[in-house]
Design goal:
Helix content: over 70%
Catalytic activity: a ubiquinone + NADH + 5 H(+)(in) = a ubiquinol + NAD(+) + 4 H(+)(out)
Number of strands: 2
Subcellular location: Mitochondrion membrane
Family: Belongs to the complex I subunit 4 family.
Number of domains: 1
Order of helices and strands: HHEEHHHHHHHHHHHHHHHHH
Enzyme class: translocase
Number of helices: 19
Membrane topology: Multi-pass membrane protein
């Protein structure tokens, strides 16, 4: 594991001296190096310096590397217009390094430190390269929501270390305190985000640049799910008693947020709220504490990471041309960009879990686990699936059909880089379905 850490550490000075495309190449190289270094077995591998990697960590790290590589590919305008792109590269490498260390740490305190460090580059991406002046407010929302709930977690970790004298994930078992459970898990509920503590997410997405939106949707929301899965064994006793409360919140919240999606006029806001609805489903699956629930939530997190990131790329491609995210202005793209409309159709279909996407597999497994937990969940799941289809088709039909906005001028259909970017989102989304049996090994 340390070889990847050193690889990324030596990439930091390169960000200031080398070309934009050399850095892009190195990001893809580290992704493929990591992909081919893994052996698919039941054990934690590459254990060194409190770092290790099982299949859950491996999938999350691979998702982080891949999304970070695609973020650079999507941010070519920074390079062309010379908008502090060297600093952008520096922030990107720091972000990738902190995410790698977060997902691979075996110690709870090291996990906590890098979990919080990964917030700082994300904040810089929103405040530094966002579009409107309101990005400062969005950044503060993100910062205070996260920091307010992270302090109780730190206190809980000190308390645990004082009592147990160890903070390794694999040695902590059967903590039976509601207070510790809430202190530790509240951080992950905010990061997921759970309904009631989700207000920072649409704000952050709307104000962030394309790279900020991609990392938020693709990886940052998965930190919450990863933390909950990792600590589920620790809180098994108390979880059996109170997890049903969070299942109710996630199910009802998912339905309400799906309804909110349908009345959004801002493209980015709609995709952000759909992320909240999908992560509500993931949270429900994790809280069932069943094998199917965990398997489904891992599959859903991966699928959502690629799918929502791709949708944000598509919305940015239109924003770069029309300079608006409003669904009332962005219309008739089927006439102007027919090739891009294919990608719009595919991503909107995958967002509503149409076959053969990974989203469908995740949703089927999560529906199984939630209905077997309680048959009352069936109603909420039916509504969420239906409204998921409604807002996905709403997004597609509003943006692709209708009369072209008369203020559009100097329009070009799309460049190879944009099609490559969208294909690299779509390819793993369809490819992972064919090898889905590997995703269940870690449980």
């Amino acid at each position: 594991m340390m070889k990847f850490v050193f690889f990324m550490l030596f990439m930091i000075p390169l960000g200031f001296f080398s070309s934009f495309w050399i850095m892009q190449f190195l990001f893809f190289i580290v992704s493929f190096m990591f992909l081919f270094s893994f052996s698919f077995n039941y054990l934690v591998m590459n254990i060194s310096m409190s770092l290790g990697c099982d299949l859950l960590s491996f999938m999350m790290i691979l998702l982080s590397f891949w999304i970070c590589s695609l973020m650079i590919l999507s941010s070519e305008s920074l390079f062309k217009n010379n908008i502090y792109y060297n600093l952008f590269m520096f922030v990107m490498v720091i972000l990738m390094l902190s995410l790698f260390l977060t997902f691979s740490s075996l110690n709870m305190f090291i996990f906590y430190i890098f979990f919080e460090i990964s917030l700082i580059p994300t904040l810089f991406l929103i405040i530094g390269w966002g579009y409107q002046p309101e990005r400062i407010e969005a950044g503060l929302y993100l910062l205070f929501y996260t920091l307010l709930v992270s302090l109780p977690m730190m206190v809980a970790l000190f308390y645990l270390f004082d009592n147990k004298n160890i903070l390794e994930f694999y040695f902590l078992k059967n903590i039976d305190s509601v207070f510790i459970y809430m202190c530790v898990n509240l951080v992950f509920f905010v990061k997921m985000p759970m309904f009631f503590v989700h207000l920072w997410l649409p704000k952050a997405h709307v104000e962030a640049s394309i790279s900020g939106s991609m990392i938020l949707a693709g990886v940052m929301l998965k930190l919450g799910g990863y933390g909950l899965i990792r600590l589920m064994v620790v809180f098994m006793k108390i979880g059996i008693k109170i997890n049903y409360l969070f299942i109710v919140i996630s199910m009802v919240g998912g339905v309400i947020v799906s309804l909110l999606c349908i009345r959004q006029s801002d493209m980015k806001s709609l995709i952000a709220y759909s992320s909240v609805a999908h992560m509500g489903l993931v949270l429900g699956g994790i809280m069932t504490m069943s094998l199917w629930g965990l398997f489904g939530s891992l599959v859903m997190m991966l699928a959502h990471g690629f799918c929502s990131s791709g949708l944000f790329c598509l919305s940015n491609i239109l924003y770069e041309r029309i300079h608006s995210r409003s669904l009332y202005l962005v219309k008739g793209m089927l006439n102007l960009m027919p090739s891009m409309s294919l990608f719009w159709f595919l991503f909107c279909c995958f967002n509503m879990a149409a076959p053969p996407s990974l989203n469908l597999l995740g949703e089927i497994i999560l529906i199984n686990s939630l209905v077997s937990f309680s048959s009352l969940n069936m109603l909420a799941l039916m509504l969420m699936s239906f409204f998921g289809a409604v807002y996905s088709l709403f997004l597609y039909s509003y943006s692709q059909h209708g009369k072209v906005y008369s203020g559009s001028f100097s329009f070009y259909m799309g460049v190879n880089r944009e099609y490559l970017l969208l294909f690299l989102h779509l390819f793993p989304l369809n490819l992972l379905v064919l090898k889905s049996e590997y995703l269940v090994i870690c449980f």
